[in-house]
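User: I'm new to structure prediction. If I give you an amino acid sequence, what do you actually give back? Let's try with this one:
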Amino acid sequence: KLCDVLGVSRNTVRAALNKLNAIGLVEPRHGYGYSIRELNSGIYLNTLLPTLLLRSRDLQSITEFRIGVEGEAAYLAAVRATEEDVAGMDATWKQAAASIDDSDLFAKYDMEFHRKIAIASRNMLFIKAAEMLENMYTVWLMGFLRTHGKERSNDFHFKIYQAIAQHQPTEAKYYMEEHLKDVLQKVKKDESKRTGLKLLNESISRE
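Assistant: Good question. You get back a string of structure tokens that encode the predicted 3D arrangement of the chain. For your 207 residues, that looks like this:
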């Protein structure tokens, strides 16, 4: 029926169903074809969220996503963090601070610090998002930090860490959101510069 409805071959339909089965959206039923799986948190965590994040090449959108997710993660971390969590954040923040002259190393510890906050939130969605962001965002962050410096990020990290260590959720959320809003402002400024240069080059090429 799918072949007739979609106007494609059986091989095309079979290949599409195999892909949907591989990511857990459908399941084969012996003698009955395929049925749609119930959409649960496991499917979202392992397939849909990574796909959405990895397809987004818009740094502004990703940073806006981070503001919403990581602000709440910081709030929950301040409520739920154990002494071990706090010690881990302290160590990573200090490693980042010690790497202030090395953008690549600072970026590594920067994203690790954010991931440890997500872990302390005890929310699997936040943890998965942080892991994905760490994998896809770190290389970009290295270049960003070379341009914009690391001192402001370092100051924000310390304030966020202090708020979580002192179990002050409102303050932790506030400083995390302010930190990422600061990043967003710089992302927008960079994008505006790139757009301006592109328009200038196009104008020159037409002359």
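You can read the tokens as a compact description of the fold. Here is one thing that stands out. The beta strands are 26-29, 33-36.
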